[in-house]
Amino acid sequence: MEDEVIKKFLYVNRKAPYGTIYALESLEVVLIGAAFDQDVTLAFIDDGVYQLKKDQKTSVDSGAGMKNFSKTYLALGDYDVNKIYVDKASLDERGLTADDLMELVYEDEDDDYKEKSSISIVNQDELAELMEQQDVVLSF
Amino acid sequence: MLHTINKSPFETNSLETCLRFARAGHSVLLFEDGIYGAFKGTRFESLITDSLKSKNIYVLVPDVEARGMRTDNVIDGIKTVDYAGFVDLTVDNKTVQAWL
Amino acid sequence: MKFGILVNEGPYQHQSSDSAYQFTKAALEKGHEIFRVFFYHDGVNNASRLMVPPQDDRNIVNRWTELGKKYNLDLVVCIAAAQRRGMLDENEAKRQGKDANNIAEGFHISGLGQLIEAGIKSERLVVFGD
Question: What's residue C80's pLDDT?
């Protein structure tokens, strides 16, 4: 983009998928935003962690009859969206661990071109510090 | 940083999660149904009183009055603002985080 | 100071649009600049010119249109969110082969990039949702 300003954008996701459209439409913003070459971080807190649950099964023609958009998260790495922070306390209180989440990876073009995990499971101090560094916080 | 809360703490955990992440010196604005967290005698009073030791908490008066609640029953230390005051808070803080 | 405003909920069902309106109005009256008001999720429904609220209630769409006219506001409705909810302007209705359109005066439909741009160009982005 022509604009030279690079801002730190944080997307805060605190809602579960499917029950409402927030998760899906939030992801659409992230994908469009990726084209603007800004510094993007995603945070998943509270019920938002359910967005990353693996094995989501639904399609327009089967099951719940809703579009399964979970695969889009797997593509985030290709859009250079690779800073994905998950609140550990939110996982813990839901009886979830890292193994319950989709494996989101990216290719590290700045280092060894190896495939690395985009997900960091962090405690509240780390996440609070991250929030503090942002220029724009978008919550859905 | 300014945090905004628009949900009653009796309905969602937005207030509690917000206060878990808000740091010392940050400001928190309670508005819409979020104002129900601002009053004496609720089960959230101690959480609020405790947070007031390190954070600034504000409540939006038009939303308090609309709901028949009384500003004189607001927990000591919470400051009252109108919409112009809400605007000032967003100017005084570099970022605004809405806890939806 | 330059503000971007994001409205994530529709009219009447939630207070978000009312809060966003009051905030925007107060900011303008204090001499601040509103770079853009972006309507997303069910917020796109705020732009329907077909809403007919009772006489004794506020008219949310007219209120936005009038504020927009007074201050020359950029009121942008997200095209993706609008289309899936049946909100179309004249051009889109024609393009999609639909027999009606419903976007009120003063609003225009555009892409999500307008929201990101509002985040980049504004000094503060304030989100109103539920």
Answer: 97
Domain that holds residue B34: 2-99
Q: Active-site residue C121, yes or no?
A: no
Chain A residues bordering chain C (beta-carbon distance below 8 Å) = 3, 5, 7, 9, 21-22, 25, 28-29, 32-33, 35-36, 38, 135-140
* CATH code at position B25: 3.40.1260.10
List Cα–Cα distances, A83 to A120, B39, B97, in angstroms.
8, 39, 19
> How many structural domains are present in chain B?
1
**Which superfamily, per CATH, for A8-139?**
DsrEFH-like (3.40.1260.10)
For chain C, give the mean pLDDT: 98
ipTM computed for the complex: 0.97
Domains recognised in chain C with CATH numbers: 2-128 (3.40.1260.10)
| Cα separation, A92 vs C90, whole angstroms | 50
With CB atoms and an 8 Å threshold, state whether C117 touches A36.
yes
CA distance to partner chain B, nearest, from residue C95 (Å): 35
Q: Do A131 and B97 touch (CB under 8 A)?
A: yes
CA dihedral of residues A62, A95, B6, C27 (deg, nearest 10): -90
* Nearest alpha-carbon partner for A117 in A80, A68, A84: A84
Binned at pLDDT 50, 70 and 90, residue A3 comes out as: low
**pLDDT band per the 50, 70, 90 thresholds, residue A2:** low
